[in-house]
Design goal:
heterodimer; A: mainly beta; Immunoglobulin-like; 7-stranded mixed sheet; 4-stranded antiparallel sheet; 0% helix; globular; B: mainly beta; 6-stranded mixed sheet
Chain lengths: 112, 113
């Protein structure tokens, strides 16, 4: 597609439940990035992929967070056993070359 | 660790006025990005600067990166209500991978008709 598509727009989970977020990158873009935005303007890099391979995972929490980009499927970010502090907007971005990132509209995750 | 300082934090201008937003780092900036975010929406890519002294313009928005690559400015000429939003600068961190960006805290711009 012409834009990065993220689903769902909003996700509400009880503490301890699993959350799964999806991202379809722009067609032809081989890089996908996940960012977490907490407290409105605090952006944190989580992980990036080049095609289906992890490119940089230095921002991923060691526990509970995982991500995949499989061929012919949307990329996904999964949080096991969600905690209150996981509440944030999760943004996906894609890029053709690793530069000039185009962002999706985000998934607002609320953990209650 | 590298941080990006944006100033001002917020700005209210009258329609038609010019304005400048600054983004400063204590370390050399690599791949400096400017984005605009509206409430509830994603980041809209504005411009990317890489070379010292580089300047790019799109419509009424001009972005510059200084020669030392430690400061960037975003200038809007003859502001309009459509320019309202949060402007974020982002930069690649030294030693980091492409697309691994740190962001400033943003500048909230309001334009009064």
């Amino acid at each position: 597609g012409e834009e990065v598509a993220q689903t769902p727009k909003h996700l509400v989970r009880g503490e301890g439940q699993k959350a799964k977020l999806y991202c379809a990158p722009i067609k032809g873009h081989s890089y996908v990035f996940w960012y977490q935005q907490v407290l409105k303007n605090e952006f944190k890099f989580l992980i990036s992929f080049q095609n289906e391979n992890v490119f940089d995972e230095t921002g991923m929490p060691k526990e509970r967070f995982s991500a995949k980009c499989l061929p012919n499927s949307p990329c996904s970010l999964e949080i096991q056993a969600t905690k209150l502090e996981d509440s944030a907007v999760y943004f996906c971005a894609s890029s053709q070359s690793g530069e000039k990132l185009f962002f999706g509209s985000g998934t607002q995750l609320s953990v209650l | 660790s590298q941080e990006l300082e944006q100033s001002p934090q917020s700005l209210i201008v009258q329609e038609g006025k010019n304005l400048t937003i600054n983004c400063t780092s204590s370390k050399t900036l690599y791949g400096l990005y400017w984005y605009k975010q509206k409430y509830g929406e994603g980041l809209i890519f504005l411009m990317m600067l890489q070379k010292g002294g580089e300047e790019k313009s799109h419509e009424k928005i001009t972005a510059k990166l200084d020669e030392k690559k430690q400061q960037s400015s975003l200038h809007i000429t003859a502001s309009q209500p459509s320019h309202a939003g949060i402007y974020l600068c982002g930069a690649e961190i030294y030693g980091g991978s492409q697309g691994n960006l740190i962001f400033g805290k943003g500048t909230k711009l309001s334009v009064k008709p």
